[in-house]
Design goal:
Blueprint (H helix, E strand, L loop, with lengths): L2 E4 L15 E4 L2 E4 L13 E2 L2 H7 L3 E3 L15 E5 L4 E3 L5 E2 L4 E2 L2 E2 L9 E3 L2 E5 L5 E2 L3 H5 L3 H5 L1 H4 L7 E5 L10 E5 L5 E3 L8 H4 L24 E5 L7 E8 L7 H10 L4 H7 L3 H14 L3 H8 L6 H4 L3 H15 L8 E6 L8 H4 L2 E20 L8 E2 L11 E16 L1 H8 L2 H16 L11 H20 L7 E8 L6 E10 L15 H16 L44 H4 L11 H6 L3
Parallel strand pairs: 5-22
Antiparallel strand pairs: 1-6, 2-3, 3-6, 4-5, 7-8, 7-11, 9-10, 12-13, 12-17, 14-15, 15-16, 18-20, 19-20, 20-21, 20-22, 22-24, 23-24
Helix pairs in contact: 7-8, 8-9, 15-16
């Protein structure tokens, strides 16, 4: 298999054409090898301490790229041709032979016809390996081969042809691989039955196409499955991203430090839950403006350590956003610029304004996206690291890109949100998705669908759909980040909608201008009005079994779904009823449209 030089847009090298993915370029089918094949002098290092704290040891590197025409020494990504087996669109000859023409690898047959990659490849069920199907071996197996010695011992390697028989219709039965040496032929319909490759004696090689055979230490125990080359399940990327935001300590950690620094705190600890500790805890609480239960919790060591909270990237981001909202106009000029805006004196429905406690215009934000690895065929399959080189155990290289953009941040009132989600019917509605998430073998990777998460996630989708009309950005260019967790000591309740570009030093400002409260509140009302009428109603609003693995309730393409690249959970965990209300449940914003439409 020859190595080919090719370059893509930087953002595409993380998704969807990252390490291990198949990419079609000018009629050729190519696969990107792991980062150990990169020329490191052209892959400069990217710094993001918050992201590396999650990944552990290693280094982030931007894939080699260039602008303009490619030359011999131009930085570019190496690619391997996969699958190697191709057939000629003119003479139907099937082989994996590749020649050269004027010093370059040729993709044409001896007859002059273009070579087309075979449409089926073999994928390991659980090991995430992929390989070519040995079509010569496969064509000489099967029922006929067991009865005919001439077929079993055929060695005419140049006589293989791939035909489409018009007399057999349009299905796989019309596609045959035939050997003109022994006259045996097999239909592709025999390839896709369960256990077909195993029965034909074709086993998993236990490696990726670019890895040498010597890299396999132990044979792979899993069976191979024949799948279409372009099937989406052939590549399931494991990506992680972080906003490059200065880490801020959560409010609970700062409060705990103040409590520990109080002169009476040591006596509370010494009394160890006695009558004196309760009295002193109340005195400390009165001095610091906290509750006595909080003081006793710190004394008992029941609070969550700040270091543990900061392991989650969103915790640090949430704290940083809150600090920016309190400071008002941001004049720092850094890579994280947020103007905090107040809602005081703003005209609009109080049922909406009363639930929003802050708006941030994110004028500049830096995001770093990295690829940890990938899986194939099954979400529970083995994770293949993005670096398979010799130093992957102590200093792996992760493909990463940095993007600069803008956005809108919304913070919701914690007290009113907590009162809403405490209602039994709201908990019951969210409990439907909680149970399905628990029953799904792969959905454990998704966020816990508590009521606040479902409502804010759905609202983010509704706002993205509305912003696509007003901001000048396509909906696929907008991203979401949901901060909704009630299990933490520092509860979170907010959404960030942003856009970021990797091929420029920022964006045009069309989104941040709409973050002005005078423009954003009408947009929110318009988004709710759009969602109130779905083209699939009443079926959609009455449904509680939509989406992949039925992980959506009342949400469909007509009202709530956006591009999957824009959503954190791939268009899952959505429900309009928890936003707008339904026949048996009150929505978070169920009175907004009523207030707006009420005659004045």
């Amino acid at each position: 298999m020859e190595k080919i030089r090719h370059d893509l847009r930087l953002s595409e090298t993380i998704s969807p054409f990252g390490v291990g993915a198949i990419v079609d370029v000018r009629g050729e089918s190519l696969m990107a090898p792991d980062t150990s094949w990169w020329d490191k002098k052209f892959a400069h290092e990217i710094s993001c301490e918050r992201l590396m704290a999650r990944l552990g040891a290693g280094v982030l590197r931007q894939p080699p790229a260039h602008a303009g025409r490619a030359a011999k020494e131009t930085p570019a990504l190496p690619y391997w041709r996969f699958p190697a087996w191709r057939f000629c669109e003119r003479c139907d000859k099937l082989s994996k032979l590749t020649g050269r023409k004027k010093g370059k690898w040729s993709n044409t047959c001896d007859c002059g016809g273009a070579l087309v990659p075979m449409r089926y490849v073999a994928v390991c069920e659980k090991g995430s390996h992929i390989q070519d199907i040995n079509w010569f071996q496969w064509a000489h197996r099967g029922r006929t081969a067991s009865l005919n010695e001439a077929v079993r011992f055929c060695r005419d390697y140049k006589a293989l042809r791939f035909h489409k028989l018009a007399t057999r219709g349009e299905g796989l039965a019309a596609l045959v691989v035939k050997c003109y040496g022994c006259k045996n032929e097999r239909k592709l319909a025999e390839l896709v039955t369960k256990g077909a490759l195993h029965q034909d004696g074709i086993r998993c090689a236990g490696r990726q196409p670019w890895e040498p055979e010597s890299s396999v230490k132990n044979p792979c125990p899993y069976e191979l499955v024949a799948v279409q080359r372009g099937a989406t399940g052939n590549y399931i990327a494991d990506r992680i991203s972080a906003l490059d935001i200065p880490e801020e300590r959560p409010q609970s950690a700062e409060t705990a430090d103040k409590i520990r620094g109080h002169m009476l705190f040591r006596t509370v600890v010494t009394d160890n839950g006695g009558p004196q500790s309760e009295m002193l805890a109340q005195l400390i609480a009165n001095d610091l403006g906290v509750t006595a239960e909080t003081v006793l919790g710190v004394a008992a060591g029941e609070e969550s350590p700040a270091g543990e909270l900061l392991l989650d990237l969103k915790d640090g981001e949430w704290s940083a956003f809150l600090k920016k909202l309190d400071e008002g106009r941001d004049r720092t000029g850094s890579d994280f610029v947020v103007d905090g805006r107040s809602l005081e004196g703003l005209a609009g429905p109080q049922s909406l304004l009363g639930k929003i406690s802050g708006i941030g215009q994110v004028r500049r934000v830096r995001e770093v996206r990295a690829l940890r690895g990938f899986r194939r065929h099954d979400a529970e399959a083995k994770l293949i690291n993005a670096d398979l080189g010799s130093d992957r155990s102590y200093r792996p290289t992760y493909p990463a890109v940095e993007l600069f953009g803008e956005g809108i941040f919304l913070r919701f009132d914690e007290e009113k949100l907590a009162a809403w989600e405490a209602q039994p019917e709201v908990q019951a509605r969210a409990g439907i998705l909680k149970k399905r998430r628990a029953d799904s073998p792969w959905a454990g990777r998704l966020d816990v669908p508590e009521p606040r998460y479902i409502a804010l996630h759905t609202l983010a989708h509704l706002l993205i759909r509305r912003l696509a009309f007003a901001s000048g950005y396509a909906s696929a260019s907008l991203q979401e980040r949901i901060y909704a967790n009630s299990d933490r000591t520092d509860k979170t309740a907010g959404i960030l909608i942003y856009t970021a570009a990797g091929d420029a030093q920022g964006t045009l400002g069309g989104l941040v201008r709409l973050g002005d409260p005078k423009k954003l509140i009408p947009l929110l009302v318009a988004a709710l009005d759009d969602a109130d009428f779905c083209s699939n109603d009443p079926v959609c609003i009455e449904s509680d079994r939509q989406g992949a693995s039925q992980l959506n309730l009342s949400a469909c393409h007509g009202c709530s779904l956006v591009s999957e690249t824009s959503c954190e959970t791939g268009n899952r965990l959505l429900d309009r009823q928890l936003v707008l209300g339904g026949s048996e449940v009150r929505g978070l914003l169920d009175n907004v449209l009523t207030d707006v439409r009420r005659p004045r």
